[in-house]
């Protein structure tokens, strides 16, 4: 498995994986394109034989805080450590660039992601009522989670 940053030719596979991971809550092609090409984007992809196994993309909010916009791993290989590898790479790069805080929003019922973030040192700092436009399993609520980097 190879870890590298985004190339424009990755967009189609990223969209496919995003749809498989988030269903009706998935980002659109244009949003993903904007996110992976945005100034200051910090992104990593896990690749095996030209197949994208997972990706993470964070964007700076200011010069000390970055927001994880999306992280997704191919559902067939969840819980095999690839999310952790991508997260660790991203966190090291954020630290190297001088960021002090990572923030993210996660659906209140996305237990696997909440557990993943807790394992990586995040704490829920806010409950966001009706944060998402589209309900999934009857809720639009989210948690904001933060991690302070050393
Ligand atoms: C969240 C996600 C990126 C985690 O990636 P992953 O490669 O499966 O995670 P890892 O194998 O690195 O897991 C690391 C730890 O996270 C936690 N975790 C991950 N999946 C979990 C699950 N289904 N249930 C409970 N804990 C889980 C565990 O603590 C795990 O450590 P352990 O396996 O030693 O117990 C992945 O589940 C995913 O793509 N989910 C769908 C998309 C999504 O919801 N993204 C987040 C949006 S905010």
Q: What do these coordinates show?
A:
With 150 residues, the protein is of the alpha+beta class. The protein has a single domain (2-148), classed as Aminopeptidase. Helices cover 30% and strands 33% of the residues. The chain contains four helices and seven strands. The longest helix is centred in the middle third of the chain and has 15 residues, at 82-96. The protein starts with a strand and ends with a strand. Bound molecules: coenzyme A (COA). Residues 21, 71-73, 78-84, 106, 110, 112-113, 115-116, 119 line the site of coenzyme A.
Summary?
This protein has helices at 11-22, 29-37, 82-96, 111-119, and strands spanning 2-4, 42-48, 51-60, 65-73, 101-107, 123-128, 142-148.
On the 0 to 100 scale, the average pLDDT is: 97
**Total individual domains:** 1
The secondary-structure element order is EHHEEEHEHEE
The helix-and-strand class reads alpha+beta
What can be said about the biggest beta sheet? 7 strands, mixed
Sheet with the most strands: spatial strand order: 1-2-3-4-5-7-6
Q: Roughly how much helix do the residues carry, as a percent range?
A: 25-40%
Number of strands: 7
Radius of gyration: 15 Å
CATH superfamily: Gcn5-related N-acetyltransferase (GNAT)
Gap from first CA to last CA: 29 Å
Question: Which outline best applies?
Answer: globular
- Count of DSSP H/I helices: 4
**What percentage of amino acids are in beta strands?**
25-35%
Contiguous low-pLDDT stretches (5 residues minimum) are none
What small molecules accompany the polymer chains? coenzyme A
CATH architecture: 3-Layer(aba) Sandwich
Tell me the name of the CATH class.
Alpha Beta
CATH topology: Aminopeptidase
